[in-house]
Amino acid sequence: MTVPIERLRNFGIVAHIDAGKTTVSERILFYSGREHRMGEVHEGTAVMDWMPEEQERGITITAAATYVPWRDCELQLIDTPGHVDFTAEVERSMRVLDGCVVVFCGVAGVQAQSETVWRQADKFRVPRLVFVNKLDRPGADFERVVSDIEKRLRARVVPLQWPIGQEKEFSGVVDLVRLKAWRWDEDDQGAHPIEIPLPEQLETEIEIARGRLLEAAAEADESLLERYLEGAELPNDEIVAGLRKATISGAIVPVLCGSALRNRGIQPLLDAVVDYLPSPIEVPPVEAMVIGGKKDGETVRIEPDPEMPFCGLVFKIATDKHGDLSFVRVYAGSLRSSDQLYNSREKKVERVGQILRMHANAREQIESAGAGAIIALPGLRYTRTGDTLYEKSRPVSLESLTFPEPVISMTVEPVSSGDRDKLLDVLKRLEREDPTFRSSENEETGELLMSGMGELHLEVLRNRISRDFRVEVRSGKPRVAYRETVSRPAARESVVERALGNRNVHGHVRLRVVPAAEVARVEVLWMAPAEQIPRVHQQAIVDALKAEASSGPICSYPVVNVRIAVEGGSVREGESHEGAYCQAAIQALREALQEAGPVLLEPIMRFEVQSPADYLGSIQGDLNSRRAVIQDMVVEGDLRILKGTVPIGEMFGYSTAVRSLSQGRASFGMEPDRYSPVPADRMPNLGY
Question: What is the pTM of this model?
Answer without folding.
Answer: 0.83
